[in-house]
Amino acid sequence: MKQALIVWGGWLGHEPKEVADIFNEVLGEQGFEVEVSDTLDVFNDKEKLLALDLIVPVWTMGKISKEQAGNVSVAVQSGVGIAGCHGGMCDAFRDNVDWQFMTGGQWVAHPGNDGVEYKVNVKYSSSSLLEGIEDFDAKSEQYYLHVDPAVEVLATTRFPVVQGPHSLNKAVDMPVVWTKRWGVGRVFYCSLGHKANIVEMPPVKEIMRRGFVWCAEGRAMAEAAKQKQAANSAYTGMGDSQ
Q1: Looking at residue 234, which CATH number applies to its domain?
Q2: 129 belongs to a structural domain
Q3: 193: in domain
Q4: Residue 124 falls within a domain, yes or no?
Q5: Which positions fall inside the ThuA-like domain (predicted)?
Q6: 92 CB contacts (<8 Å, ≥6 apart)?
Q7: Which helix (DSSP H) or strand (DSSP E) does residue 218 occupy?
Q8: Spatial separation of the C-alpha atoms in residues 100 and 115, rounded to whole Å
Q9: 209 CB contacts (<8 Å, ≥6 apart)?
Q10: CB atoms closer than 10 angstroms to residue 47
Q11: Within-domain flag for 162
Q12: Cβ atoms of 79 and 183 closer than 8 Å
């Protein structure tokens, strides 16, 4: 059985407990054994993190120690997946650039604040992760992020929708859903999820479900690839000795 850890807390305006409850239910339905923690202290135990298949942060505008962030980073590099949404992952620790490098982006603005009506455009890419999900409308915060150019973008939204200091720039398609690698670990992010009711939207909930499953598969695949490489090396060595 795959092991997942959900860690929630930080700014309560994002309803982290309610979102964590939804994610707990989704993961349970996928057969995960889930631990839910409301403290970052769980990140102090590196060996515990290394034994997981998936880490799900639901923590906005908090403070994380260098050691805690480093332990999560090492775990993900080893093959443990990390997946999250909205400010719960990419506005979690504003003063920790290592976290931002790992997760692939950082929130910087949401022009118009909550209640902006915008479209999420699913993109065709080398990934089939969002296959079958159609473009959909959202009424929520529209996240403007600084994004790692290494990410694979699976969905976007067009800016500007509302006026602001960014409006005189040319129109841009801002990533909404992306994947990336951190070491051999898989990273998944969706910028939707300001409140629990947004996470409950059918396309958003399905996007998150797929992201969780995809990320959690990474560890087993990385271990299989490592074993295959070791077996090939051993076989080559036997040939050299003959």
Answers
A1: 3.40.50.880
A2: no
A3: yes
A4: no
A5: 4-215
A6: 10, 57, 59, 60, 61, 62, 64, 84, 99, 103
A7: helix 202-241
A8: 26
A9: 26, 30
A10: 8
A11: no
A12: yes
